[in-house]
Amino acid sequence: MKFLIASILIIASTIKVHAQIPIDTIVTENGNTMVIFDDRSWVNLDEIPFNGVMNPMLQKYLATKNIAHPQPWNTEYCFTTGNLYNPSSFHDTIPLKLNVQSNFVMPVPGVVTSGYKYRWKHYHKGIDLDLNTGDTVVAAWSGKVRYAKYNSGGYGNLVVVRHSNGLETFYAHLSKVLVSPNDEVSAGDFIGLGGNTGHSYGSHLHFEVRFYDMSINPEEIIDFQAKALKKDTLLICNRTLRPGATPTHLEEEDIDNTYGNTQYVAAVAKPASTSGSKGYYKVKSGDTLSKIAARNNTTIAKICQLNGIRQNSILQVGRTLRIR
Fold first, then answer.
1. What is the pTM for the complete model shown?
2. SS3 label, residue 275
3. Which of 54, 56, 152, 248 is least enclosed, having the fewest CB within 10 Å?
């Protein structure tokens, strides 16, 4: 019956990307997932383009700070914002959870050979880690590969991974790139081999951590001797984003005393949908709207609004609900 309905909708509709509210999903006989909208139009789920926003909660907060433009999903340029953002625009402190999707993994085991500092008449906006050409380089956190190719601006072979907490990590001077743009990687996955490409004098990994193209001292986050995170929460402010900044060593309880009227933002990614499709949840036996809302960090009212149902609606096992 669902496939018959889908066939009728296919005949009656034109494929396009929609801003309408999705009300249902249908898996066709060939395995494709169709998203049905409230105006009875439809689109295949894999045809909805990714807009690059991996943390909608953070993006919504930044919009209140007049930073409304998201980082574009640009696979051709390692920097995407065109220097739209300036550390001076941050008057509050933004706490970001670091181990959101996964625990941290050292990209390479080597020691620091050059730090985050003013060097050779410009700022060195990352950390150099020792390695031999051909050594394996892995992703520090889980995320999605945005950039993976040779960069003529000095990075050489470069991989950039975007993470769900709003950060991006750069892995430069590789001898070989082992991933492609749009690949999803887990922490510890191979992404390249160490090398000496680009503006480099000797084999090493140049490792950067960036927030909206603004560099952060990796030692703000990572204890490179212990090869572990210093803390679970990164406090982003104009002090941590200043070129050449030394670690602030602030704790969460110090925020209010240091910055005055600081707003605390739960800048964490929402849990992934258990249905296998981002933003959707497949109803299982025993589920209620309250259980689904709590499990997916949302509200009953929001689920009802997105799916055109009432709070007392009977949930059919196997139905896919839009949760965000």
1. 0.66
2. coil
3. 152
